[in-house]
Description:
By secondary structure, the chain is of the alpha+beta class. It has helices spanning 9-33, 42-85, 87-94, and strands spanning 119-125, 129-130, 137-144, 150-153, 159-165, 168-172, 184-187, 192-198, 220-228, 231-232, 236-240. Strands 2, 5, 6, 9, 10 and 11 form a 6-stranded mixed sheet that branches.
Amino acid sequence: MVNQGKPPSNARTSPSAKGPARNSSANRSQGAANPQRRRPSRAVYRRRRLVVFGALLVVLAMLVAGVMAMSSSLASNADSGASKNDPSGAAAAQAPQVVPTVAATTTPAPTPVCDLNLVTVTASTDQPSYAAGQNPVLSMKITNGGSAPCQVNVGTSQMEFLVTSGEDRIFSSKDCQAKGEDLVKQIDPGKSETANFVWQRNRTTEGCGVVSAKPGAGGAYYTFKAMLGNKASTKAVFQLG
């Protein structure tokens, strides 16, 4: 009966028994308030990387498109300005280039020119000797020895038939010629013009004075010289019987 009025022993030990229960519940509440973080899986990482890579590709594509658009715009503006400043140049650039063809040409040969120095005069008679009563026929021949045609005055104004005997002037067609005439003819290269004069066996003097003497006969020799302007032939010799 000694123990009357004292609390039972289990009453003192109850707080210590209840302490662990309180701690565990407190730990659970802290764990609920601060849950532990889990690391993402590899699949999640891959998906994230693919998303980031795709975004980068989109950004790069947009940048490239923008640069190309700006370049084409600048080029079109430059072409437009050039065509406005130089429309003929733009048209020339669009027009096809035509390369002229040069045909092979040969230098034409120079046209021959008449050389009057190559026009010659020769004298001749129709016979070497004449009997009494025969009149000699004196011939003047004008020949073009050049390579081009020549216009030659072969009129009586330029011609003279002259007969001499030694130093004696016997006859000239100019002495009694009333009026000489011009006659221009074309003489082709290698061709000739011939004029004939029948001498009457008479004497003449300059100014056509009266001469009663006659040329000598009986086998006397005479010379004939033909002249055309400033050109003179060599002498042709003939005999009068």
